[in-house]
Amino acid sequence: MTAEWITAGLAGLAAGGALLVGALIAWFFAVPSRVVASVMAFGAGVLISALAFDLVGEAMAEAGIWPTVSGFATGAIVYVFVNVLLDKRDARNPRGSEEEGPGTGTGIAAGALLDGVPESMALGLSMLGGHGVSIPILAAIVISNVPEGLSSTAELKASGKKPTFVFALWGGIAVAAALASLAGFTVLADAPVEMTGFITSLAAGAMLAMICDTMIPDAFRRAHSYTGLLATLGFLTSLVIHQIA
Question: At what angle do helices 163-186 and 135-158 cross, to 10 degrees?
């Protein structure tokens, strides 16, 4: 069990650490925004495929339709509600835009945590029942987090933030992701399948809302016509990984 705890924590750390990797690249290299947007669009497709086949599919098979449907809807509603509150407090804008200017440190941290917690918890949940870490989910989160770290760090750097602040921010979020993954595995280890199915689909609902709310719009704003094609390619890539794994 101890080894599984360590694995769950490391999986979450790897997922959150992808943000830090993106931040390091953005801090030392000038990555074209179109490249970042292309990777983000691809990552959105990967995430959609992973949450459909690995999270919702597993929840449906183990817990049935009502825990799955109610959990999925709850996750989406909670995610959107929190975003609305952050917008009203002017604390959100995790990646900035030409119209709005660079995002604030608070907005970026809040947005990244809001995105990362359900993703990482889903990783821990994927280990329940002795299945081990879901490779498709881990790959999807890593692929989507790297461009988020790239884009957000570029905005922070442009706004004059110090490197100590930037890397402490992403390092802290990586640790939070590890704790979320560990919580998903340990807290719900002995829970009824209906509850684990509800929580798994809740994470999936929050992830889909995040994709539609932040990843796809930002990718389209920069990559335009290629966004749909790249997302489709990401979906198919994740599907192949799902079948192989």
Answer: 160
Average pLDDT by stretches of 10, the chain with 245 residues: 78 89 90 86 89 86 92 92 76 47 56 76 75 78 85 81 89 89 80 85 88 86 84 91 77
**DSSP letters spanning the chain:** -HHHHHHHHHHHHHHHHHHHHHHHHHHHS---HHHHHHHHHHHHHHHHHHIIIIIIHHHHHHH-HHHHHHHHHHHHHHHHHHHHHHHHTT---SS-BTTTBSPPHHHHHHHHHHHHHHHHHHHHHHTTTTT---HHHHHHHHHHHHHHHHHHHHHHHHTT--HHHHHHHHHHHHHHHHHHHHHHHHTTTTS-HHHHHHHHHHHHHHHHHHIIIIIHHHHHHHHGGGHHHHHHHHHHHHHHHHHH-
Q: How many residues does the chain have?
A: 245
Report whether 241 contacts 136 (CB < 8 A).
yes
Neighbouring residues of 55: CB distance < 8 A, sequence distance ≥ 6: 122, 125, 126, 137, 200, 201, 203, 204, 207
